[in-house]
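Title: Prediction job returns without error message
Component: structure pipeline
Severity: low
Priority: P3
Assignee: unassigned

Description:
Job completed but the reporter wants confirmation the result is attached to the right record. Sequence as submitted:
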Amino acid sequence: MRIYEKGMQLGSKWHPWVRWELELHSVDRVIPWDVLLEPGKYVAGAYPNATGWIQEEMSRIRTIQNTAQISYDYMTACTSISYGKHINVMLEIEGSAEKVIEKLIRDGVPKRLDLPIPAKNEGWDK
């Protein structure tokens, strides 16, 4: 969001014109046409603590993120950095991946991965 005194920008020292701009991008979201018809509720919804006084009705544009995939990839990278070399040693000592997995596996799902997980054909086969 950008807020600036447009009158001052155009050279008037005490002009009351203040311009409010909310920049919306369509990355990971669909911007509804309603934004053009009722912009006030989207400005208020984008920053409710700062702009809630603009309009009582507020609307937010939902962002679609594949949180489970991001968390899975991140946790896999962290596990590789933290424990990858130890797993190599375990493979040498135990003799097979199955025995290593038997020693390491625990019941449950990490909290940040405890999300609806899409099927393999929805982008998990990268």
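Comment from assignee: result matches the submitted record. Residues 121-126 have pLDDT under 50 and may be disordered.
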